[in-house]
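Internal QA ticket QA-208
Title: Verify multi-chain structure generation after dependency bump
Assignee: T.L.

Test input:
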Amino acid sequence: MKKSVFLGTLAATTVLAGVAFGGTLDDVKKRGELICGSNTGLTGFGMPDANGNWVGFDVDLCRAIAAAVLGDATKVKFVPTTGETRFTALQSGEVDVLVRNSTWTFSRDTELALDFVAVNYYDGQGFMVKKDLGVSSAKELDGATVCIQTGTTTELNLADFFKQNNISYTPVTVADDSEAQRQYLAGACDAYTTDASGLAASRATMPDAANHIILPEIISKEPLGPVVRHGDNNWGDVVRWTYFALLIAEEKGVTKANVDEVAASTADEEVKRLLGVSGDMGPKIGLSNDAFKNAIKAVGNYGEIFAANIGEGTTINLARGLNALWTQGGLQYAPPLR
Amino acid sequence: MALATDVPKESFRLSMLIYDSRYRAVTIQVVVLLCFGLFVAWLLNNVVQNLAARGKVFDYGFLWARAGYDINQQLIPYTNDSNHFRALLVGLLNTLVVAFFGCIFATILGIFVGVLRLSKNWLVSRLMTVYVEMFRNVPLLLWILLSYVIFSEAMPEPKAFRVTDEMVAAGQEPAASMLFFDSVAITNRGTSIPAPLFSRGLGSVDLGFVSLNLTFLATTVVLGLSIWANRRLRASARATQEATGIRPVIWWKSLLILLAPIVLLFIAMGFHLDYPALKGFNFQGGLQVAHSFTALLIALTLYTAAFIAEIVRAGIQAISRGQSEAAFALGLRPGRTMSLVILPQALRVIIPPLISQYLNLTKNTSLGIAVSYLDLRGTLGGITLNQTGRELECMLLMMVIYLIISLCISAVMNFYNKTVQLKAR
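Actual output:
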């Protein structure tokens, strides 16, 4: 009995660990498909639409990477992962890249042997409550029952916040966003806490969205970004610079619509390098020279992706805030492409 | 004898390992063992290499780091400043408490249903058949989810209990009210029941990593002594009955022995009940029993009881009809026939499969993760695993712990099984 259990574990581990480590880029090219770890369903960030097509802010970054590497934004397979399974899925090689509202932290970066290559959304943890609860600040939540997704950084922030403010709470740990919403709407918890962007996304799908408010306190820093396995630096570069290409495109005014026109007419040397008109930026990281152009053509620049999925005017209605370009007072800043 | 000595003694040759049937069996076993050993070594080597390739070290040091998360049901003191090992203990106790009550309730319900299913009353026996077939044939996870959703969707919110001044002025009743003389409140979050408190408790003694609650210990000791004294009393009554044929009246002595010491102890320690009351968002005070616990317990009980009912039915049917006919002939009523003649014999058949039902129930508690019940799977295998990223360590440790729990249950039940088996005299 004891032996067979042990063997089972070892066998399972062996299967999990039995993947090639070097050369994710080669693997993706050979496979002809990018496998992207995605959310199980968070409106605006990553979820299948009515026709089963994945749409969202994080999803578009996956499509941009596929367009840059394979030249075709549709060649992506999305693997839904929960807060608990996401890092294991990445470590075991089940997915090539994880773009799933994952917070960049020290221990994930080091102990979990992952690499966070960029921050595509600067977020912070907030609280959502029903309006009729009569609460206007998170500090008034003494004694409240709080729904929280397990396996996330928010779990730890929550404990710290209530301790620092010397107030008490009862945690209700749930597995994913939809279960948390069900419990919150059923009144099984007074407040729901997760990243403020996630709260806005959840609220957008609620039938009575106007009856819920997001409290002003942001209790943590949550830099969310794409994650790759530690040690595969070339693949990390590909993901990182595809993302930066989208930022540079917004900064330079290159859009999905005008990318061909700009490529033909531009006099800006950085734009020329970005779109592969001059230089050999693409080949330097193992891509074609028009890789970034394909990415921009497929999904648009960072600003377009933001506006289309989660920006003002969509149901989620998030302001750019910290995620504005550095030229407009935000934190989104790409190193020079040269 | 003389002939045997005449046989020339053959010297051992290597080929005999294969061709001599005396040695062949051993040879095969040794070879298989070697192959098995090599296989295990290969797996181990694989794990070590892969861990090294991922830059991970096999290390249980994380158990002593600060956990940083909160657990909503704690039987021992725990805060988010406690370490992961403490969280593991909290989870383990949560597993044990639901398994313990689950086994007890499932046994009681199972015996009832099993007996009633053999009832001559058509309606009763059919109803029990429906119950058994329904619960046996639907996955346990669905029952757990169903009972949880019923609780969280159908019960009133805490604010429904609130009485405001305007409502008093208008003579309105709140939408929901507490049960049992305002002592129990069932909300969509949990059940608040009065908590037993002691104003002059005995405190606790710190024994390194666990602290021993002296109040709890004293209560257990007094209860144990009372039960022991009561058994002695009954034994002496039985002896008198055997000797004189008249059974002395002892029920009031029994009652006194069982109740008086514990009541005196409780009065001495200043026993009182702390009633839950609505304060702020939730009911405060009293004991909060989360619905995840209640739902898990109910589902486990109903599900396992259906299996136990079948085991009990099989046990009863294994006893020959002659036994009950003989009992009836002696003038025993059907109820007494069942409890004095049939069930004691049926126990011999019932106990062994019952053990595996207990083991199943205990292992099934890990499904509590579906309703956010923070048992061992939820703390060590859930949050700790996620926050530290130590899958292999956590999973192995969790398996070992479940294994130990199961082996303990097996050992206890096997011991009990020995005591009810037929004694060969």
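Spot checks passed. Chain B has a mean pLDDT of 85.
Status: verified.
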